[in-house]
UniProtKB/TrEMBL annotation, chain A:
InterPro entries: Ald_DH/histidinol_DH, Ald_DH_N, Aldehyde_DH_dom
Name this protein carries in UniProt: Aldehyde dehydrogenase
Gene Ontology molecular function: oxidoreductase activity
Domain Aldehyde dehydrogenase: 27-258
Keywords of this entry: Oxidoreductase
Short name of any one Pfam family annotated for the protein: Aldedh
From TrEMBL, chain B:
Pathway: Carbohydrate degradation; 2-deoxy-D-ribose 1-phosphate degradation; D-glyceraldehyde 3-phosphate and acetaldehyde from 2-deoxy-alpha-D-ribose 1-phosphate: step 2/2
GO-annotated biological processes: carbohydrate catabolic process; deoxyribonucleotide catabolic process
Similarity comment text for this entry: Belongs to the DeoC/FbaB aldolase family. DeoC type 2 subfamily.
One Pfam family this sequence matches: DeoC
Originating species: Streptomyces inusitatus
The protein's name: Deoxyribose-phosphate aldolase
Top-rank lineage group of the source organism: Bacteria
GO terms under cellular component: cytoplasm
PANTHER family assigned to the protein according to its UniProt record, in alphabetical order: DEOXYRIBOSE-PHOSPHATE ALDOLASE (PTHR10889)
UniProt-listed Enzyme Commission number(s): 4.1.2.4
Keywords: Lyase, Schiff base
Length: 298, 316
């Protein structure tokens, strides 16, 4: 028995992109070597090209109508389901995070637990953000005046370079919780947890295209996304200072919402700013009702 | 070397038997080879300047089409404006070849085009099914021509064709051709209903013998419309017909061509099969509507270097 086990060929995992609910290789056919923190080879990851970015935007745009139109309650349920699936593959993520970031098993475990909890936390926000960010505005006339937050559209997300899983979840979940769809560029050196997250998303009721995950050189993929006319917002968390500046200039052309790189501390309470960064406020006026002879009827 | 049109082939249309003998005597189509050839031509890489040329050529070949029960004069006017100036932000983009509408909208389209160099094509002969008497079909055609149509898109009687009554189909095309007068006649086979590649080859020759100016794949109203394979087959037919008779006939794939990539694949087919003589909107057309927006977005991408989006083209 033991000899059979020893002779068994190892089955390497082919990490692939996650675009439009499918797992394609890079259109360019390129891959790059991913190593652990000590330089030991872990796997080959796809080296995405600008055409992969373009395809991901098309997929995200296609998914936007359905996802933003789903009820907030339904979105919350789906996101919670993602957390359930993450829990089921906890061991895999612990191993991948430990290898990627050179952490001990217990520290990696703590990161994965925090990431799953973070996902649940954002799942809860889906049907509460409108009450917090919206409201009834007092106006000088017989009208109801209501402001509600609406998702911005397709958001490009540059995932943080250092925190391969907790940081990743902390930037994806707030974008999609409010109804946006996302094109995510995984951390350049440690993309494996992100690519595995795609496998989780594919099996958890999240419609294909809502989250699209690309791996490769952040600068190479981010440039066409920042200039893309059909991308409505960009989160620059994973860009260095110089790249962030360049991308912000490129993003100005179609007035993208830009979230500049901020604190890299992901264990703290995240607050709502990552959600509100990609929300727009819609205000509607509605007559309060017929005016009687004596004036307003309300 | 100009030969009198179809003179060598004049006797084949003398009787139903002669026509059948001729059409069934055409070489059979090798479907696997045909599809493989179409697929391999689809892998050509067309980049940079060649792509820019192909995109502009494709735009100039579009019959911008609206054939809906819900067509309104307003929609037709909007379509005509778009045909004349596809990209309002870029005056260098070429106009489309034509707008294609139902006969009752020809007048509206003609007025909206206001003398611009864009033709008005009208479907006729009880489009799309073609299930009506010859009188009704001819009246439909005359209506469209009288309203000012420059081109008539007719459908063949697929029922008669599939029943083997080729002469009936032939005579119907002849009659419609006569009723069209100076308007160019496009003959639609509805390849998706002809069921075999052999039938598409026979229909192509039948249409060309009857005097079609264009042979067109489909109405856009059935499940299978223009495919690279059936268009390749029709391109071979027009190439062979010109070699035999000296008469050049156009080809129009219609329906289901939505992306620039697809359109460029068709242009490669044209160049590699029929030849560069057909790379002109007098001899090759695309029946399409949403294709134009994708071509315009690609055009903007080539001009600016950044990917464009549907917010930057008109929605029709």
């Amino acid at each position: 028995m033991s000899t059979v086990e020893q002779n068994r060929l190892s089955v390497f995992k082919t990490y692939k992109l996650y675009v439009g609910g499918k797992f394609p290789r890079s259109e360019s056919g390129r891959v790059y070597e991913v190593t652990d923190s000590k330089g030991k080879w872990l796997a080959n990851a796809p080296l995405s090209s600008r055409k992969d970015a373009r395809d991901a935007v098309v997929a995200a745009r296609k998914a936007f109508g359905g996802w933003s139109g789903a009820t907030a309650y339904n979105r919350g349920q789906i996101l919670y389901r993602v957390a359930e699936m993450l829990e089921g593959r906890r061991e895999q993520f612990v191993r991948e995070v430990a290898e990627a970031e050179g952490l001990s098993k217990s520290k990696a475990s703590a990161q994965v637990d925090a990431a799953i909890d973070r996902w649940v936390w954002y799942a809860g926000w889906t049907d509460k953000i409108a009450q917090v960010m919206g409201g009834a505005n007092p106006v000088a006339g017989p009208f109801f005046n209501l402001s509600t937050p609406e998702p911005t559209g397709v958001v490009a997300v540059l995932a943080p370079q250092e925190s391969s899983f907790l940081g990743l979840v902390s930037v994806i979940a707030p974008v999609i919780a409010t109804g946006n769809t996302a094109v995510v560029i995984a951390g350049e050196k440690n993309p494996l947890p992100a690519l595995s997250l795609g496998e989780v998303l594919a099996t958890s009721d999240l419609p294909g295209g809502v989250v699209n995950i690309l791996s490769g050189r952040t600068g190479e993929i981010a440039a066409p996304l920042a200039a893309h006319q059909d991308v409505n917002g960009i989160d620059l968390t994973g860009a260095g200072d110089e790249l962030a500046k360049e991308l912000e200039i490129a993003a100005a052309d179609n007035l993208k919402r830009v979230l500049r790189p901020g604190s890299a501390e992901y264990t703290a309470d995240p607050g709502t700013h990552r959600m509100t960064a990609f929300l727009e406020t819609k205000t509607v006026w509605h007559p309060t009702g017929a005016l009687g002879a004596s004036g307003s009827s309300y | 070397m100009p030969i009198a049109p179809a003179s060598a082939l004049s006797e084949v249309t003398a009787s139903d038997q002669a026509l059948r003998r001729f059409l069934h005597g055409l070489p059979g189509v090798d479907p696997v080879g045909l599809e493989a050839r179409a697929a391999s031509l689809g892998t050509r890489s067309i980049k940079a300047e060649a792509k820019a040329y192909a995109i502009d050529l494709a735009i100039s070949m579009i019959d911008l089409t609206t054939l809906e029960g819900a067509d309104t004069p307003g929609k037709v006017r909007a379509l005509a404006a778009k045909a004349v100036r596809p990209d309002p932000t870029d005056r260098t983009s070429p106009a489309t070849a034509a707008v294609c509408v139902y006969p009752d909208m020809v007048e509206t389209a003609k007025a909206a085009l206001n003398g611009a160099d864009v033709k008005v094509a009208s479907v006729a002969t009880a489009f799309p099914a073609g299930r009506a008497s010859l009188e009704v079909k001819l009246a439909d055609t005359r209506d469209a021509v009288a309203a000012g149509a420059d081109e008539i898109d007719m459908v063949i009687d697929r029922g008669a064709f599939l029943a083997g009554r080729y002469l009936k189909v032939y005579e119907e095309i002849l009659a419609v051709k006569e009723a069209s007068g100076a308007a160019r006649l496009k003959v639609i086979f509805e390849t998706g209903e002809l069921s075999t590649y052999d039938n598409i080859r026979r229909a192509s020759w039948l249409g060309m013998l009857a005097g079609a100016d264009f042979i067109k794949t489909s109405t856009g109203k059935v499940a299978v419309n223009a495919t690279p394979a059936n268009t390749l087959l029709m391109l071979e037919a027009v190439r062979d017909f010109r070699a035999q008779t000296g008469t050049q006939i156009g080809v129009k794939p219609a329906g289901g061509i939505r992306t620039s990539k697809d359109a460029i694949k068709f242009l490669v087919l044209v160049n590699e099969t029929a030849g560069a003589d057909w790379l002109d909107n007098h001899w090759f057309r695309f029946g399409a509507s949403s294709l134009l927006n994708d071509l315009l977005m690609q055009r903007q991408k080539l001009a600016t270097g950044r990917y464009s989006g549907p917010d930057y083209v008109t929605v029709d």
